[in-house]
## 1
Amino acid sequence: MLLAIDQGNTNSVFAVHDGEHWVAQWRSATATSRTADEYAVWLAQLMAMHKLDLGMLKACVIASVVPQAIFNLRNLSRRYLHVEPLIVGENAELGIPVRTLKPAEVGSDRLVNALGALALHAPPLIIVDSGTAIKLDVIGSDGAFEGGVIAPGVHLSMEALHAAAAKLPRIALQRPRRVIGNDTVSAIQSGVFWGHVALIEGMIARIKAERNEAMTVIATGGVASLFHDATQAIDHFDPDLTIRGLLEVHRRNAAAPTGRG
C-alpha cells in the first residue's frame, strides 16, 4: 500500500492507496512542530478505524509547500514505514516539462496537480486550486507546465480584512443569497464569496483570451467546493486531484533504481 501526503500551508491530507483504489484519507491542520512520532500515533489510530496498520504501508510519496515540515514527514516514513519516501522537488522524477523562467521555484503542489489533471483530461488545461492561495495554472497542449497566476486565497482575504479594519467582524464563509448585502455581515460575505468567483471567472477569461484557444478548466482545493457550482467557467470539480497526482508520481518512479525499500 502507498501512503500519499499532500501538505499545504493550512491543511495536510494523508491518503492510502491499495494499488487499485483509495481506501482512506484524512485531513489534518498543518503544524510545523509536529514530530514524526506524533504523526505516527495520529496516523496509526486513524488507520486502525479502517482495519489498517502502519505495517501495511510499503511506499510513501510526499508533496509539501512547507519546507520546515519535510524533515519530520521524512522521518515518519523512514522510522515507521521503513521506506525512503519519494519527495517532490527532491528525489522524485515527474516527467513533465516546466516552461517557466525559474522551474525550481514552481511549487510542488502545482506540478503534482498537473500530473493529476493530465491523468484524466486532455490538455490544454487550466487548473484552479483554491487554498491558502488561489492558483490558476496553465498546462499547454503538449502537457507542459507553462506557469500561471497566484493570488491571496479567500481565507487570507477574510483575515486581512478583519485585521486591517477593527470594526469589521470575523464572518463565516458561505454563499450569500444576494449580491447586495443589507447589513455588514452579508455585505462582507458577498464581497468575499462573489469577489472570489469574479476573480476566478476574470482570470480564466483573460488566460483563454491571451492563449486564444479552448481550454478545459478543473477546480480543486479545500474551498473550491464552495465555488465550483457558482460559475460556469469551471468545467470539472476534482477534490482528489492532488492525491491522484501523487499516485502518478509514485507510478512513474516505481521502477527507478533509487534504492528505496
## 2
Amino acid sequence: MSVVYDCSDPDSRVDGLKAAAASVRSGRLVVLPTDTVYGIGADAFDSAAVRALLQAKHRGPDMPVGVLVGSWSTVDGLVLGVPQQARALIEAFWPGDLSIVLPHAPSLNWDLGTTRGTVMLRMPLHPVALELLREVGPMAVSSANVSGKPAAANAQEAKDQLGESVSVYLDGGPSGEVVPSTIVDLTGSAPVMLREGAVSADAVSEVLGVELGPQE
C-alpha cells in the first residue's frame, strides 16, 4: 500500500526519506518533489525498477528516462567525459532547472530506455530531492504523471495518476509554476537546445558563448 509523507513536518520528513530510500534500494518506485514538477523515481542502475517506472507512466523505452544526481561530482562517474561546456553549465545552473545530455560511460550497467549511448543529467534545487539523492545515489526520474496527462504540481496530483504503482510519496508542498527543465544536448559537435524550459536559451547561450542550434 502506498504511503504519503508530509515533508513539512520534521518527523514525517525523516520517516519519509528513510522509507523512500528503503524503497529505492529494494527496486520500488517513489514520488519526490523537485524544483520543476513532481517526479517518479527509481534506482538508475536497477533495470527492472526503471521498466516499472515506464510501465507506471504507460510509456515505452523509446522515451528514455533522465537521471537526477545529488552532487556535481557524481557526474564524473556517469559519463564518458565532462567537456568544458558541460562544466560551465553545471557551475552556472546546478542545482537548478537545466538538464544536460552527454555520452554515458560505456561501463555502466543500466537500461534507461532507448538512449543511443547517452544520458540526460540534472541536479535539482529541492532539499528533499537532494537529501534522497545523496542517500541512495543517482535516480532515474521522470515527471510524475501518466504519459499524455498534465505533469503533477503536488503529491496528490501524482497519486491520483500513479496510485499504488508507487510505494512512497514524499509531499514537499506545491511545486509552483509547472515549467519543465531546459534540455541542452552536448553529444555533438555543437550544443543543441532540445527543449526550452525554466532556463532561457539566451541564458544558456550567454554561458556557453555560442548560439544554440535548433533540434533537427
